[in-house]
Every structure is written in structure tokens, then in C-alpha cells.
Design a protein that fits this description.
The chain is mainly α. The protein has 4 helices and no strands. 85% of the residues lie in helices and 0% in strands. The longest helix is centred in the C-terminal third of the chain and has 32 residues.
Length: 71
């Protein structure tokens, strides 16, 4: 749930490479053909997207923990 929520808030260029790489299990080469961008760009976007996902999930967990403490 938290992953999909974070994905929906993500910049579309990062979301797209995450979807193609992880959900559609495409290779770098296949993504390159699909998006018409260099493989180096794909790797950078995947790395940034992973970082953003981790950060968003961590923030949402911290927020939900705070909500549970006050209940």
C-alpha cells in the first residue's frame, strides 16, 4: 500500500522506469527502446526513483507511527 501510494506521487519519468523495470520486468535495453533514452539515463532514473520511494515510505511510516502513538 505505501509503495503504490508513493509511486502515485512520484514524478512520471521516475514512475515509468520503475513500472517498466520492476512490474513489467523489462531489461535496460528494452526500456531504452521503449522510452528512447540512453541506458545511463535509465540507471540514473531508477536510482533516484528507488531513493524517492525509500524516503516516501519512511516518511509515511513515521507519520503513521505518530498517529498510532496519539491514539
Amino acid at each position: 500500500q505505501a509503495i503504490y501510494s508513493a509511486l502515485n506521487r512520484m514524478n512520471p519519468k521516475y514512475k515509468k522506469v520503475i513500472e517498466l523495470f520492476y512490474l513489467q520486468e523489462m531489461s535496460y535495453k528494452e526500456i531504452q527502446r521503449e522510452l528512447n533514452i540512453p541506458q545511463a539515463t535509465i540507471k540514473v532514473r531508477l536510482n533516484r526513483a528507488r531513493h524517492l520511494l525509500r524516503s516516501q515510505i519512511k516518511k509515511s511510516k513515521t507519520f503513521s507511527d505518530r498517529l498510532n502513538l496519539s491514539a
